[in-house]
Specification:
Keywords: Membrane, Symport, Transmembrane, Transmembrane helix, Transport. This is MFS transporter. The chain is mainly alpha-helical and about 475 residues long. Helix content is about 75%, strand content about 0%. The longest helix is centred in the middle third of the chain and has 37 residues.
């Protein structure tokens, strides 16, 4: 095993530890997150069988709570960025968040023994704990990414492994959900017990892989600011980082459409296509497509600029939606549409992470402070804001199309099916185009601009190191942070 320095001066074994230690931690996280973000409404409507009135109330609750929690993400980022401990500023919160998140997930799929108004009240309490715990873990986890490397190529390598692992976890759940819950229902005697047992298994997997991240990763970029970021400057850190704001707006638009499409997927195969069993087959095809897209991303990005990669990815998504609308419920057409759509989405998913990571250096260069967690708090904000908007669209679609009251495909009228398809495919296609327009016109951190910013930051840090008597040859790692920074 070689101990030679990497592209930015780190030994190769350390670089591999960060790539795999960080990446593997996403595997269980995305399983747990997907069970709630994609399938909570399925659980409530198909297993608990809530009424239209209860579903309407829960839809409103989901929209409001997800938006409220998304706004709170920067506050958690502020807390993480100002944390000082022997374990650094990220890992304590990753551990605390993972444990609380696991407990809340198990509680979410427990049998509460209540209905009506009481059910909604209990749901609000449990969901609030789930969202807060998810925020604590997510902000600290992804906030750590920019501290693992400042090199764009190495960040892409970390990001590719992280997204591949995340998608393996996500699509493993999507593919297995129907057959596993059916098998567990036969073994345990009820659908509710089946979903509860699945939740317990998933949180155990999540905690195991989070432990790998805590033990394996080592922070390499630790820039000490003159003083911790004051709370009064929290909004300024975000508001004055114009590139971060444009990325956030564009990605909220994109992810809203994507969330609507994926959340309606199982309903589509059950009530529109007419064969729920094909959902697992379709999900398996999409999972392989998306993971394949992530694996080829480095090859594509080596030949095309990120701006052109984004254009190609957007075109694939638009083509996928167009084919989906014209597929007329044939499995071949739907499969082709899914490959196009999820292949493009894989590229955009990774680009979003890279755009936000590069905004850390831009914010440091522009504002004089390095705020990884506050900056990366906009990533869960993107997911939560889009999830909130998507949940509202999904709940409204289920009610207006008649799917929530339907017991079989024959119960859905032609008009209801047309409305369902328009919401699942037509609206997201328009949102994908709008997202591309925002980024193509407003985002300016191309490769050359970013390289100039990093060079300027390195010069500043060497000058600061000389002023305070540190060895300027140590590069961008300053005398801040926990014990990870010295290893």
């Amino acid at each position: 095993m070689s101990n030679s320095p990497g592209v930015d001066g780190a030994p190769e074994p350390l670089r591999r530890r960060n790539v795999w230690g960080f990446g593997l931690g996403t595997l269980g996280r995305d399983m747990v997150a997907a069970m709630v973000t994609l399938f909570l409404l399925v659980y409530l409507t198909e297993v608990v069988e809530v009424s239209n009135q209860t579903l309407g109330a829960i839809t409103v609750v989901l929209v409001l709570m997800r938006l409220f929690d998304a706004v709170n993400d920067p506050v958690m980022g502020f807390i993480v960025d100002n944390t000082r401990s022997r374990w650094g500023k990220f890992k304590p919160w990753i551990a605390i968040g993972a444990l609380a998140w696991a407990a809340a997930t198990v509680l979410m799929f427990s049998d509460w023994g209540v209905d009506g108004v009481a059910f909604v009240v209990v749901f609000v309490g449990v969901y609030l704990v789930w969202e807060v715990a998810y925020t604590v873990n997510d902000i600290s986890y992804y906030g750590m990414l920019p501290s693992l490397s400042r090199n764009q190529g190495e960040r892409e390598r970390i990001g590719v492994v992280a997204r591949v692992c995340a998608n393996i976890g996500l699509f493993a759940l999507v593919v297995a959900l129907v057959p596993v819950t059916e098998a567990l229902e036969d073994a345990l005697g009820s659908a509710q017990r089946a979903w509860f047992a699945l939740a317990v298994v998933l949180v155990v997997i999540m905690l195991a892989f989070q432990a790998i991240t805590l033990l394996a990763t080592r922070q390499r970029i630790a820039v000490e600011t003159v003083s911790p970021t004051p709370l009064r400057e929290l909004l300024g850190v975000i508001a004055r980082n114009d590139q971060l704001l444009w990325v956030t707006l564009a990605m909220v638009i994109f992810m809203t459409g994507y969330t609507v499409t994926t959340s309606l997927g199982l309903y589509y195969f059950t009530y529109i296509f007419g064969d729920a069993g094909m959902y697992s087959v379709f999900a398996a095809i999409l999972g392989v497509t998306q993971i394949g897209g992530l694996l080829v991303f480095p090859l594509v990005s080596a030949r095309l600029s990120r701006r052109r990669v984004h254009l190609v990815a957007t075109a694939l998504c638009v083509a996928g939606y167009a084919v989906f609308l014209l597929a007329d419920s044939t499995m071949v057409g739907i499969g082709v549409a899914g490959v196009l759509l999820f292949g493009g989405q894989a590229f955009i998913q990774l680009l979003m992470m890279m755009f936000i990571a590069d905004s850390v250096e831009y914010g440091q260069w522009k504002l004089g402070r390095r705020n990884e967690s506050v900056t990366f708090s906009l990533q869960p904000f993107i997911y939560k804001a889009s999830s909130a908007l998507g949940a509202g669209a999904v709940g409204l679609t289920l009610i207006l199309s008649g799917v929530n009251d339907a017991d079989a495909p024959a119960d859905v009228t032609a008009g209801g099916a047309a409305l369902f398809k328009a919401a699942m495919m037509g609206l997201p296609m328009l949102l994908v185009i709008l997202s591309w327009l925002v980024l193509s016109r407003r985002y300016r951190l191309d490769e050359a601009t970013y390289a100039g910013i990093v060079s300027d930051l390195a010069d500043r840090e060497k000058a600061l190191a000389s002023d305070v008597g540190l060895d300027p040859t140590t590069g961008p790692v300053a005398a801040a942070g926990g014990p990870d920074d010295a290893r």
